[in-house]
Amino acid sequence: MAQNFIACDREQELLLPPSLSEWLPEDDLAWFVLDAVDELDLDAFYGAYRRDGWGAAAHDPQMMVALLVYAYAIGVRSARGIERRCREDIAFRVLTANQVPDHATIARFRARHEDAIAGLFGGVLELCARAGLVKVGVVAVDGTKVAAAATHHATRSYEQIAKEILEEAGEIDAREDELFGEARGDELPEGLRTSGDRRKVLREAKQALDAKRAAEAKKVPRGRAERLVECKARLEQDWALERKVVTEHAAWHARGIATDGSRRMAGARALIKPYPLTDSPAGKINVTDPDARNLKTTRGWVQGYNAQAVVTQEQIVVAAEISIESLDTANLRPMVETAAAELNAAGVEERPAVVLADAGYWKNEAIEALVGQGIQTLVAPDADKRKEPRPGRRGGLYDFTRRVLATDWGAELYLRRQGSVEPVFGQIKSNRGADRFLRRGRAAVRSEWRLLAATHNLLKLHRAQLAAN
Fold it and tell me: Residue 62, class by beta-carbon neighbours within 10 Å (0-12 exposed, 13-18 middle, 19+ buried)?
């Protein structure tokens, strides 16, 4: 008796056209993503295209958004990887209706619509709010260092950048001489022809400059020559700011006026150490991604960004932003206020009642400002390894917070921080492989981080609906 097997004839033509609805089960994530994208406001995407029908046909933005959202949700972020999945993966073929946008088209769409992609975060948060998943009685703020699409080996000093610019200009001259002989080409661009108060002013001035650069959100040039010129200009701008602040501080101090407005004693002025000013910019910058910084982590240093998030007890991200500061100190108040704005835009009237954060966020002024807004803020005054009070911090808010954390109620409340925000970072960075940004520049990285946070929320919403059914 012959063995009984199901026939496998690869030459058999399909008797009827295939139905995409039969390719995936009803509860598959791809169908959920399509339904969710249908609910999102995509006007910002469609507004970037001509309305008169002229020009080459483009892929429908709704399809491209669904493709990106699904790809990021399952940990596929490379444009080439997404293109390959569009050919090989059934779910991707369902999402694209059997179209295969090439990797260049996917990359251009992601770059062209980076602001609109960042805006998807708010739309997904609104979907979660409608489903009753957004409960903001207690939220946690935290940050995680994510590597940039650049290595620290690409960090250069001003002199190194100047040398590379001149070398590249020389190579261009040589190529043009070989190409044109004695013919004249375009002229080359011009060549490169108490200290505590002072440190605070310098730091604040630098943070203000970084904030201005972030608001202007310039794209990182693709060409290396253009990036070198941009990096040189930034170092010169930082150097000019430093000289201005130090000079103004020296003049202020010479007048003998103290921080509180009182007159200084003549002898006190002599205690301020002179601040050495260099003849040229002394800083360094990464020529692959000028916005990235060399940030300190528990495992060493990483060239990257400080990805910030505000997360609920149910692990829903209600705010996602990017910082270039290694320390989290300056991010507490901005992140909480950003979360309030995101919640309001998503139709959530409730404001965070309690905010939890680790010792890296300790800043008296920020904590007091949030408490003044009616938001109870519990920030650890010391790292876990410190059992004794920190010298110089005794009294006031510091001692009060230590007493709160010493109670059973305070300790139990603070432990909620670890169980809410840290698993979110683990899901994004480890489970979905997003431990390095793929795009360059603060604006592009912000768009990518917010898309990662939005897809995290979308996955939570999908699981909640599966559980309900």
Answer: middle
